[in-house]
Amino acid sequence: MVKIDNKEIKVVILLNSTTVPSWVKYIWDYIENHPKYNVVSIVINSNPISNPNASFYRLLRKADRFLFKYSPDPFKRTHLNFNSEVKELNIRPIQKRFSDYFTPEDIQKIKDVDPELILRFGFRIIRGEILSIPKYGIWSLHHADHIVNRGGPPGFWEVVLNEPNTGITLQTLTEDLDGGKIIAKSFIKTDYTSFNRNQAALYWSAAELFKNKLDDFSKGEVHLDKVVDNVSLPEFYSHPLYKDPDNLTSLKIGVRFLAKSSIRKLKDVFYGEQWAIGYAIKSDIESSFFRYKGLYPPKNCIWADPFCVKKDGELFLFAEQKKGKENGEIISFKYDAPTKSFKNLGVVLKEPFHLSYPFVFEQDNHFYMIPESGSINKIVLYESIDFPFKWTQKRVLIDNIAAYDATLYLHEGLWYLFASIKPIKGMSANEQLHIYFTDNLLEGTWQPHKLNPVKHDARGARPAGKIFEYKNTIYRPAQIASYKYGYGIKFFEVIKLTPEVFEEIPVGETKPLWDKNLLATHTFNFIPGISVIDFQKRVRRF
């Protein structure tokens, strides 16, 4: 943990040009408008070196960008506008094979502006005296998990090697390449269908991570996951140093990629994907998923996100129903004990926008529901006026927010709302977990948690069902966004939850392995008497 003073932080930004990619402009806009940060200088690399790529690699990437566009494009160039008080320094570094060193004269120029923090968005590998100038270090992004991938190109080899996730490492630079002090790490789901789309999603997520950590730092402290100088044993790296592929390797990758894409499209002709519901009638949690009975929707329809409640001793399920390309709607089922089966009660909530994840709960003898309505940028609370068939909007809990899978939990007199937030258009809805709290569900104002986002990791951020207590322990189910959307469920034990603190540890997970046709499972709910899940299966179209 690094403490900072309550004065402005003097910042120097390293660039290759004042015309920058959109993802850099996004961070620049945040810094420029933040009262805590004072950009005193921009250091421009007067002689940037572009590494020559093999011709077939360039062709491969060009074709991929043409076929698989991404919006908004993080690499679209835009000009930085800065005021006259920002000193522009043009520096010609001493260039070695992969590294840039600064001359004594240029080092002095940077010392003269007395930076406390340097942000690197240009130059190559930086070495030498400059690393020790700012007391808060040189912050730099490595667009990969530094434990398994060092080198480049960013977001490329994860697609080639079918890695389930692509990592992001924000660090302060040291002489050890990609071995600096870790400020934060994050992961996105690897997009196997396109190098460009995977890289674009990676850069937007990394920009948001960078911005969030600058925000944390401005509030007085930033946590370092490790401090290299204080560990006795080095962190071993056993993977190759990745590089741009040569022509032969690029050709092989292109052929394999084309073959995989063709096979995938051929499968899509004959097979589709369908979500269904599984349940187990049992007083305790049923932990063996092969024992669950299935509730299967008709063709061209999915049932997903099941939630369970009891009313007057009877069991009810609520779930998303989606037919083809129509918006999702909420349906309900009632358990019939004599036949040991669920009866479909039909649609109970339909809106002109998409609904899913019907978080249903009882409070003070009233039943409420918070369905996912991220498409309208609102979190809406509904109240039942004729259970389970009729629901009316009670209040908008939080407005102007792209929130997904809102999950309430009442803890020590406060209501906590967990949701996956999509802060910018270029990110997915699977990466950031935010918490809000209030002392009054029906009338209170929701306040953001001090640590928001409390998690930035597609491997366990997005809610996957109610937070529940089991044997005096609090558990939070979360989606594992690896391999594909909603691939599995990770269970976290909640260690501490207050408006200022959130701590949880992973304690288990489930993956879609109990049937050969399964593809995913992304919701789990339990109340005494029933455990319920959803699962996605591969189904024949004909």
From TrEMBL:
In the record, biological process GO terms are: xylan catabolic process
Domain Glucosamine inositolphosphorylceramide transferase 1 N-terminal, first and last residues per copy:
303-507
Q: Which UniProt keywords apply?
A: Carbohydrate metabolism, Polysaccharide degradation, Xylan degradation
InterPro entries associated with the record: Formyl_transf_N_sf (IPR036477), GINT1_N (IPR056442), Glyco_hydro_beta-prop_sf (IPR023296), Glycosyl_Hydrlase_43_Enz (IPR052176)
Q: Which Pfam families does this entry report, sorted A to Z?
A: GINT1_N
Q: Provide the leader sequence positions.
A: none
Is-annotated flag, keyword Transmembrane helix?
Answer: no
Question: Would you tell me the protein name for this molecule?
Answer: Glucosamine inositolphosphorylceramide transferase 1 N-terminal domain-containing protein
